[in-house]
Design brief:
Elements: E1 2-5, H1 20-34, H2 39-54, E2 56-64, E3 70-77, E4 82-85, H3 104-111, E5 113-117, H4 129-138, E6 145-151, E7 157-167, E8 174-175, H5 180-230, H6 236-251, H7 256-266, H8 278-281, H9 289-296, H10 298-305, H11 313-321, H12 342-356, H13 368-377, H14 385-396, H15 399-406
Antiparallel strand pairs: 1-5, 2-3, 2-7, 3-4, 5-6, 6-7, 7-8
Helix pairs in contact: 1-2, 1-5, 2-5, 6-7, 6-12, 6-15, 7-11, 10-11, 11-12, 12-13
The structure holds fe (ii) ion (FE2).
C-alpha cells in the first residue's frame, strides 16, 4: 500500500504526467468543474474524469456530511454497467460510512492522504467486507484501488473518491494503479473540492436570497394589512387586488417576472390610508368635500411611506397614481392617457372593480354584471381602453368570479 499526502507539488512527477493529453486533461478539470451549476452533475463529472484519467473500470464518490459520515453519492462501473447517482436507499452496499479509519475511504478522509492498494484481497490494513460482498453479489473481482480525498489546498476534506481496477491499456485486464496517478488524482481532488465548495456557497447564497424575498413579502403583506385594518377589512381586498392584478397583467402580455412584481406591488396601493383618520375611513355615509380631500391624500402619503429603493419603484408609482383617470380627471396629479404609469393604470381597473363588488360601510356589494357595466362605460374616460378589453375577456371567461370567490371570507 502506498500513501501520498494531499497538496503535493509537481517536482516528483514521473514522465507520464507530462504526457500532453494527460496534462491537458488535468488543466481542463478546473474549468470543467467550475462550469457546473448542479451538484449532482458536478459529482458525476468528477467520477467520470477520475475513471478517464486513470483508465479505471469503476469509481465511487462519497461526500462528508454534517453528521460526520461519508455519504455515498455516485457509483459507476463500466464492466457491470452500473450508473448510480444520488441517494442509495435501494442498495445496501452503497450506504453511508462512518468516519472509522478501518474503512479505507474514511482513513483517506481523516488523514487527507491518497491510498494506493495493488490488490484489496491482499490488504489486511482495512476492512474490505463491503467490496467483497459487492464482488460476490455481482460476480466481480475488485483488485486495485486508489482512494483520494477531495480536499482544498487549506486541507479541508469535503469527500473521497474511490477508484477501482486500473486497466491495462492493451489487454484491458486489471492492474495496480501506477504511482503517478496518485499525484494526478490529488490535483483532481483539489479541483473537485474547490468546485463543490463554491457550488455550496452559491446554493447558500441562493437560499438566502429566497429567504430574503419571503421576508420582504411578509413585511409587505403586514404593511398592507395594517393599512387595510384601518379600513375595517379582513385583508381579502388586498389579496383580491393582488390576484386580479396578476390576471390582468398576464392577459396584457407582461412577462412572468413583471407579473410577479406588479401583483406584489399592487397590494401596497393603499398603504397611505394609514395616515387617514379613522373617522373618515370608516364613515358610513357620503364624505364631505373636506373629508374627501383628506381621503385623497392617501395617494401622496403612500408614496412617502414606501422606501425610495428600486424594488419599491413600481409600488410607489401605483400608490401615487392608482386614482388617476385616463381622461385626466383623477388625482393627485391629473395625469392623462399614457402619462399615467402602466402599473397604476392596471391597478386603477382592479381597485375600482373590487370596490364596486365589495361591501363597504356606506354601500352593499354590487353584482358583477352591474359592476362590469360601469367598467365598460369607463373605457376611454376613467380607464385605459386596452385594459378594459382585457378585463372584459377575463370576466367572460369566469376568471374574475373565481378570484372573487377564492378570496372572500
Ligand atoms: Fe386608493
Amino acid at each position: 500500500m502506498n500513501e501520498t499526502p494531499g497538496g503535493v507539488d509537481g517536482k516528483n512527477l514521473s514522465r507520464e504526467f507530462h504526457d500532453r493529453e494527460t496534462v491537458k486533461l488535468v488543466l481542463d478539470l478546473g474549468a470543467s468543474f467550475a462550469s457546473e451549476r448542479r451538484l449532482d452533475n458536478l459529482l458525476e463529472k468528477i467520477v467520470d474524469h477520475s475513471r478517464l484519467l486513470t483508465n479505471a473500470d469503476g469509481c465511487s464518490l462519497y461526500l462528508k456530511g454534517a453528521d460526520g459520515r461519508l455519504a455515498f453519492c455516485v457509483n459507476k462501473n463500466h464492466t457491470l454497467n452500473i450508473n448510480l447517482v444520488g441517494a442509495s436507499e435501494n442498495n445496501a452496499l452503497f450506504t453511508s460510512l462512518p468516519l472509522d479509519p478501518t474503512y479505507v475511504s474514511a482513513y483517506a478522509a481523516i488523514h487527507n492522504v491518497t491510498v494506493n492498494i495493488p490488490d484489496v484481497y491482499d490488504c489486511a490494513e482495512f476492512d474490505f467486507t463491503g467490496p467483497r460482498r459487492f464482488d460476490e453479489k455481482n460476480g466481480y473481482r475488485t483488485r486495485s484501488m486508489l482512494v483520494t480525498p477531495l480536499a482544498t489546498r487549506e486541507g479541508e476534506v469535503v469527500g473521497v473518491i474511490q477508484i477501482i481496477n486500473a486497466l491495462d491499456r492493451h489487454t484491458h485486464t486489471p492492474i495496480p494503479f501506477d504511482p503517478h496517478f496518485e499525484f494526478l488524482t490529488n490535483s483532481l481532488g483539489n479541483y473537485a473540492a474547490i468546485a463543490i465548495h463554491n457550488l455550496r456557497l452559491t446554493e447558500e447564497a441562493r437560499q438566502s436570497t429566497v429567504l430574503l424575498k419571503e421576508a420582504n413579502r411578509d413585511a409587505i403583506y403586514s404593511l398592507a394589512m395594517a393599512a387595510e385594518a384601518k379600513d375595517d377589512d379582513t385583508g381579502d381586498h388586498v389579496r383580491r387586488i393582488q390576484h386580479y392584478t396578476a390576471a390582468l397583467a398576464t392577459r396584457l402580455g407582461l412577462s412572468r417576472e413583471d407579473v410577479d412584481l406588479i401583483s406584489l406591488s399592487s397590494i401596497m396601493h393603499d398603504v397611505g390610508k394609514i395616515s387617514v383618520p379613522d373617522g373618515i375611513l370608516k364613515k358610513p355615509a357620503k364624505l364631505t368635500d373636506e373629508e374627501f380631500g383628506a381621503m385623497r391624500t392617501h395617494t401622496e402619503h403612500g408614496m412617502k411611506i414606501l422606501p425610495k429603493k428600486e424594488f419599491f419603484r413600481m409600488a410607489r408609482e401605483i400608490a401615487r397614481h392608482h386614482h388617476e383617470r385616463w381622461d385626466g380627471g383623477g388625482y393627485p396629479d391629473k395625469l392623462a392617457g399614457e402619462d399615467i404609469p402602466y402599473a397604476a393604470r392596471i391597478v386603477a381597473v382592479t381597485d375600482v372593480f373590487d370596490a364596486l363588488t365589495s361591501e363597504r360601510p356606506y354601500k352593499k356589494a354590487w353584482p358583477f354584471e352591474k359592476a362590469m357595466e360601469v367598467m365598460r362605460e369607463g373605457s376611454g374616460s376613467h380607464f385605459d381602453p386596452k385594459m378594459i378589453d382585457a378585463w372584459v375577456q377575463l370576466y367572460d371567461e369566469g376568471v374574475l368570479l373565481r378570484i372573487h370567490q377564492q378570496w372572500s371570507t
